[in-house]
Design a protein that fits this description.
367 residues; mainly alpha; hpI Integrase, Chain A; 4 domains; 14 helices; 51% helix
Amino acid sequence: MAVFRRGKVYWYHFTFQARRIQESSGFQNKTAALRAEAKRKVDLLDRRTGFTKPKVAPKFDEFAEQFLGWSKQQHRAKTHELHSGNCDTLKRFLRGKWMDEITHGMVEDFKLARIREKRWGEQKGIAVSAVTVNRALSTLRLMYNYAERCGFQVSNPVKHVEFFRETGRTRIISLEEELAYLAAASQPLKDIARVMLDTGMRPEEVFRIETVNLDLGRRTIFNPFGKTAAARRKLTMTEEVFAIMKNRAAVLESPYVFPSPDNLAKPIGSVRKAHDGAVRRAKVKPAFRLYDLRHTYASRAVMAGVDLPTLGALLGHTSVQMTMRYVHPAEEHKREAAGKIENFKALSAIKLAEKNHGVTTISATVQ
């Protein structure tokens, strides 16, 4: 046993399974410090022994490579690339630490330090967004879930970490903006955008539409992809979507409605450059993301009278709470709602006056 004084408090250090443990005992009394050291050793033994001996947790940077190898096999290239970039960021903060020694507090420190950073590129000093930090936290959480499945005795330190609120990203486009954007959009972006606006499908779901999943007779699209049963759903085509699918299916030499221009055997992977160019040429400000077309569909559906459970099924959501996050009334509809409230108040005042004066009149609807 070895304890030593640092300031007024005793610390202890020892080696356990080739790992050097050095921690504060929290006590100013040497005897109490020795007891704390003994208890720490017992706790470590309890975690490492049992009828089936668990695997010793690896270091973070070593396990990150194992995680990325698994991610490459399980996820699409774009998702794997995102996890890879997030791992590089996480390594800057957690390199050399053992997986079972990373605490909730360390993750909170990472979160706060990261949001205060600036990334450097073509435009210097761009602040790291809340969305970027949240994506890194999601990768870390997934890493620990995978570590547990691999048999390592670790506790997920991200479990009780509160993610940053992502504000200012959702954008509902107006009809005028939609017309200008579609007029400026090149193909296949123009058709992809139309399908999203009329069905609410996610961009990657539209990219991966296969001709075998089209039923032109019943005018439906079946989406077989998704992590949940709700995401795997059948959608009805509008007239415009039906025309797009019919025309494309008639001339396709690919199993995909929107094939990759480089390989017809694969679906298109991204239309980001085309989208950004269309937004710029249409002079739509503030700019919006391609995914905002899905939000636009959801908001328009509610304004048209579609109930939330039905909308959730169309969007592929598992809960109404998730669907509610997609509903963002436009400004004109907010003004209409305010007008309806004013009308209700005025009509109520007329009825109250009639009651108080005992006069029976025909109440006119207030415009």
